[in-house]
């Protein structure tokens, strides 16, 4: 990672099961974003580092290298059980504050796909299911998806014929149909809910679903920046 030549306010890090996502913040805005599978070398940056993580081994690797302010449930103005992943809450906070919505559903497409509902600053609940890459991995090494790749169904009336395409298209279809059903169920309880998608594969997987109003792949990083500003951590 090359050193940023701008004057930095700080750095925010979203630690997931697959990647460290690092954003450099200058003048209150994200200037650049980097994804890495190995622990980023941030020791040369003499600025505050704000992070959230639900992966203990990755948490330990980063905190052994630099001083980090870890976002916890106490930092978020959301009423929730203590065992809810803090990344889900940061995404909800970001969606609510960015898009001025009282009720939001955030769908985060990652190693695992989470659906999280916030209503009047209360975490209502949601679902966790395997993400597309995790589902494909269950077939074995030959069926692995390429990074951030999602397969779309063939033309109407045609069925996949070869085994790999059948796996790829079947995975995409079952996830999209399942999400459509779950969103409809949630909207029956909260008709005015704003549905926001995020995550590495969100655009390809969620774009065909009509009820997904906004797709913002950097939602959690933006939430960390907004929290850092609100709590004067930068």
In CATH, the topology of the largest domain is named: Nucleotidyltransferase, domain 5
- Give, in order, the helices and strands: EEEEHEHEEEHHEHEH
Largest sheet: 5 strands, mixed
Q: Note the gap between the termini.
A: 21 Å
Overall mean pLDDT:
90
Count all strands and give the number. Answer: 10
Name the CATH superfamily assignment of the largest domain: ATPase, nucleotide binding domain
Contiguous runs where pLDDT drops below 50 for at least 5 residues:
none
Just name the CATH architecture of the largest domain. Answer: 2-Layer Sandwich
Helical content class: 25-40%
The number of helices is 6
Give the neighbour order of strands across the main sheet. Answer: 3-2-1-4-5
How big a fraction of the residues is strand?
A: 25-35%
- Structural class based on helices, strands and sheet pairing: alpha/beta
| Shape descriptor | globular
How many structural domains in the coordinates?
2
> What is the CA-atom radius of gyration, in angstroms?
18 Å
In the CATH scheme, the class of the largest domain would be Alpha Beta
